[in-house]
């Protein structure tokens, strides 16, 4: 008897041994290789247990199998080799049943509705798609005519003509392209999503002799069906130079069939090409307006390589004779006879004629060395409806992993009436796919928000023609395009900053400087590109802005960081008390007035560390080399208790009171704590619509009050503390000194009216009797002495006399 372990059984099952087939077995159950009779007899004597996923637990084999109504041998997989071989030899297995193959069935009308309405969200793109198909037909004819000139002998002109019948709601588009035969009508228009252009491109690739670039647009074979967005019936009449007959294809919206017939009307015969007639739905008959058709052509198909003509109403001025009234004609005739002239007037004669619509040429397809500055400027004005020339332009071609052409412009002024920093949904970038306009509605897909002022066109060969917002967001091609467009935009702006004409960049900074500052906050990847473009006023350059490179060149040898102070204006920033010692040492400080957080803006500087220490309590780094330890120790000994006295008076308004080393002419200053908000930061936080007032209250308590021990006011305060710490005038002087420091340091007082009252009271005390006459002074002194006597009158207690008060 052969006994196999559990691991042996598993290995045999994995190796595919057909001698053993076990469907389910208990852990630890032995499998015996013996005859069926022996196995059956032992199966009744020994009650082995097994586990099944069908019965939730442990059960007897016989009971469970009966309960499950399954054959024991099949379920447990018992099989003897000799019996299996006998059965295989005695009877042959029946052949497998035949496999039937079916084709997918579809409701064509519903399928077409899904395709058209899912691909096109904008109804007006139907004309773009039909013009693109017509352009492909013309391109095919041009390619095939190279080897077979007989194809283009019937009609020499390669153009597209669009006729709009506003009264009847009909649009007719005719091209003189390659046309289609009867079979091509069935293959291209009768088969959904089959592109004739794609087949033609495949044939060109297979033909090694047909080299060179191509301008074919179509890819998916569904552009034609966009006509059903606005039309309920479409008729296609086409004549191929390969066929002697002209055929008419006709289809209706919602129908699962179409018709093809031979054209027999001599008036409708065309020499070559295709004529598409759209019978518009009642709700979309407005598309049949000739002016609207012309506008759509200029918007979407302005740069198609073939001329597009639209049927437009025109007029010219001419002079005609005027028939006057008989009563008036007598006097006029006498005058006319004297002059020998007849009376006429100017009228406008109206007529209809074909007008070329796509006059502007796509200059981005030309070599940049062949395009002049005047041509770039003219293209900018026409494309974006501007009247001023741009500050700079960049024309480039990108090849390799992604292929596209582009022309970018820097506008001369920022747009009027709207803030593009907040609203990044601008229409400044026009995206084309093979010269066909796709969209100008972007939300950061091609340029980040801070570069939304850049204008230009981008023509890609790699993007699909039916581009949607989702495709743009997820497309790897678009991400690569964005990186290269941003790099070219920075190069163009840097070129303006390095030009000899300094006024150009000053003009740019006045209009778009806030955009670049926003870029310092939002785009950390391009900090090195942004840093050379930033401009600031400084304590040594109030009229002309300087770059950070110029600031570094002007730094002192002992200066190890870039110092800055932020305020709401240049004047208040330069006259801030924090800068007094710095100005004496001729250390340059950048003056920031932007509404953006200054540290985040200057964080883009990779040159040196930032230092806002001029507005912080610790000023050692700023004034390195000027420390006099003996003088500081003497000042602390002299004014140490006075600082504690002032802190006790101010309470929670300040975190501490210290002796300052940054002041020279001011008696005191209020600086923000090391982790607190500066005055400019408080101003910005208060301006937020959803500002956190709790944080504002907490940060207020982190301020540090610094005093100047060399100032006369501080010396008088120190004398007041030593003589009478409880003197009310001294207390008022401390309060007023704190409020004055609050304002001079850039903070906002909580109660301006109270501050004004304190100032008026001090003025009254200081100016009392200074310019008055002697009589008025004597009267004021008598009034004051009288008031003093009243205040100092003795209080007499009642006395009892004879039991009475």
From TrEMBL:
Residues 26-47, 321-342, 771-805 are annotated as: Disordered. Keywords: ATP-binding, Chaperone, Nucleotide-binding, Stress response, Transit peptide. The keyword NADP does not apply. It comes from the Eukaryota. Residues 327-342 have a biased composition (Basic and acidic residues). InterPro entries: HATPase_C_sf (IPR036890), Heat_shock_protein_90_CS (IPR019805), HSP90_C (IPR037196), Hsp90_fam (IPR001404), Hsp90_N (IPR020575), Ribosomal_Su5_D2-typ_SF (IPR020568). Residues 791-805 have a biased composition (Acidic residues). ATP binds at residues 129, 133, 175, 180, 195-196, 219-224, 274, 469. GO terms for cellular component: cytoplasm. Residues 771-787 have a biased composition (Polar residues). The keyword ATP-binding applies. CDD domains: HATPase_Hsp90-like. It holds the Pfam family HATPase_c_3. One of its GO terms (molecular function) is ATP-dependent protein folding chaperone. Belongs to the heat shock protein 90 family. This is Histidine kinase/HSP90-like ATPase domain-containing protein. It comes from Brassica cretica (Mustard).
